[in-house]
Amino acid sequence: MSRYLTTRELADLLRIGERKAYDLASSGEIPCVRAMGKLLFPKAEIIAWLNASRSGPQVAEPPLPPIVAGSHDPLLDWALRESGSGLATYYDGSFDGLNRLADRSAQAAALHIHEPDGFNSQTLRDLMGNAPVILYQIAQRQRGLLLAPNISDISGFADLKDRRVILRQDSAASQRLFETELNQHGLSRDDLNTLPVCARTEEELATALRDGKAEAGFGLGALARPNGLRFVPTHSERLDLAVWRRAFFDPPMQTLTQFLHSSRFSERATELGGYDLAHLGQIHYNGASG
């Protein structure tokens, strides 16, 4: 997910030799950055350069599958079912969802990727350039340490050393954020007593804690009360839905977004807790190319 390509990566992308890649950079034919004696190529600009070089007739794009991929969120998952949108789901983390969005095997992806200056937008742009994708805010939500009901001596990341912890899969944005936090507290996975199997969804993580299989996990505050868990809030994060623009205006997605603005959705968010819908529907990114 780096914002820059190396010369080798550019050559692989264009299926040319590295010498040719150097020649393109030297002649100014391709966007590049020279830093510390190395050549780097901004991924988003390379994608835009390739799109600008396109020729030939415009061919109708194949239909996008009615699938919402990405991060599992209990409130959004409930809305997808209750709205009657007809959209299917495939949850395997924000980064997996973003890749599925990019290769068009999903028409939307739920994302909560923490970035230095916000959430989701830069990562989306780095991978997909200026593709016609909309980033639509669902909610601001609380994340932190979910604790089994009988655990009262964990108050932060530093207390997790040698404790029984359930992890998420590597493609989950929460797992990457969790490992960043561990590192900042002088810990790593090796310092934890981790379960041999990770939780593929937020609900699987909460269920494992409720059933006593683990003592702690990095999860959503919304799942604490329904599962009788303790919750130590550590982060507020923005949950967005990244949607191909042409799918956004189709009936399934419009059915979903209309339901998101209903009183039933608001009441469900209040019932779960840990959600702020003040900016529901705000567009944080709208790719320009068509």
Quick gist of this model?
The protein is of the alpha/beta class and 290 residues long. The chain folds into two domains: 4-52, Arc Repressor Mutant, subunit A (Orthogonal Bundle), CATH 1.10.10; 66-290, D-Maltodextrin-Binding Protein, domain 2 (3-Layer(aba) Sandwich).
Question: In words, what does this structure look like?
Answer:
The longest helix has 12 residues. This protein has 290 residues and is an alpha/beta fold. It has two domains: 49 residues, Arc Repressor Mutant, subunit A; 225 residues, D-Maltodextrin-Binding Protein, domain 2, CATH 3.40.190. α1 packs across α2. 38% of the residues are buried. β7 and β8 form a beta hairpin. Strands 4, 5, 6, 9, 10, 11, 12, 13, 14 and 15 form a ten-stranded mixed beta sheet that branches. Strands 1-3-2 form a three-stranded antiparallel beta sheet.
The assigned structural class equals alpha/beta
Strand content: 15-25%
**Number of structural domains:** 2
Uncertain stretches of 5 or more adjacent residues:
none
Looking at the structure, the CATH topology of the largest domain is D-Maltodextrin-Binding Protein, domain 2
| CATH classification, class level of the largest domain | Alpha Beta
Helix content estimate: 25-40%
- Tell me the Rg in angstroms: 21 Å
Shape: globular
Number of strands: 15
Query: What is the tally of helical segments?
Result: 12
CATH architecture call of the largest domain: 3-Layer(aba) Sandwich
